[in-house]
Amino acid sequence: MAQFVVEVEWQRSGQDFLNRRYSRKHVLRFDGGAEVAASSSPAVVPLPMSDASAVDPEEAFVAALSSCHMLWFLDLAARAGFTVERYLDRASGEMGKNAAGQLAITRVTLRPDVQFGSANPPSAAQHAQLHHQAHSNCFIANSVTSTVLCQPVGLEDTAA
């Protein structure tokens, strides 16, 4: 089975740790060499202890779901003979209390806006089916207990 490793590094850098006024900024390092500035969300830990310009875990969670869905969608569209010219998702996540009363990302909504090539575009039903299949295949969506919704732009009247 595949294994995925991410290095997460934080350093105190001389800040007073025990009073909890230390920076939450840290670095995420991925196996391909990418480094991403990360921090707690200012919605969770107030500025200046967090960094609004960095990626927070909640954003990364939403991005992982969106990216996984997109990658499956592109693969399925190619297999079905539909050329995708552009894929843009303005995904969002909502924090709230889960069934156990704990704070959690309780809902993620994907809003993919897909532009197909004009030679052989799918019907609305085929487009919706591609999203349904992508959602079913997404490893990340299959790994979470949050509700994950997909609302493709232009397919509001079609169940995905």
TrEMBL record:
- What InterPro entries does the annotation carry? KH_dom-like_a/b (IPR015946), OsmC/Ohr_fam (IPR003718), OsmC/Ohrsf (IPR036102), OsmC_Ohr_Peroxiredoxin (IPR052707)
Q: Could you tell me which Pfam families the record lists for this protein?
A: OsmC (PF02566)
Organism field: Aquitalea magnusonii
Q: Which domain of life is it from?
A: Bacteria
What this protein is called in its record is OsmC/Ohr family protein
